[in-house]
Amino acid sequence: MKILVVDDSSTMRRIISNILKSNGYTDIVEAGDGVEGLNQLKAHPDVKMVLTDWNMPNMNGLEFLTKIRETTPNTELPVVMVTTEAEKANVVAAIKAGANNYIVKPFTPEIVKTKLEPFFGKA
User: 95-102 long-range contacts, Cβ below 8 Å, gap at least 24?
Assistant: First the structure.
């Protein structure tokens, strides 16, 4: 199953990708911001999940999420926000925009695994 990881930090993309790979998710596509993320979704229509950062240049994660939801229903493509934005108002904004789950940085591999299990079961 293909997963898109969107984060402006190449280090964070590598960390998330390594966690995904250690949990059995090996088909990973990356993007550095929401604009690149939309391009990757067009290039890879077989993406089954998106993990996106909130704070990015060009198009932030919330704008990216909104663009995704304009073209796909909430349940069709799970989108998980991965961010330092832990304030309740931000979490509510992400959920209202169509986020399926939320991971707050810093996180552990176990947290990522737990947050993905509702969508794919145990890897």
Answer: 97/62, 97/65, 97/66, 97/69, 98/65, 98/66, 98/68, 98/69, 98/74, 99/65, 100/74, 100/75
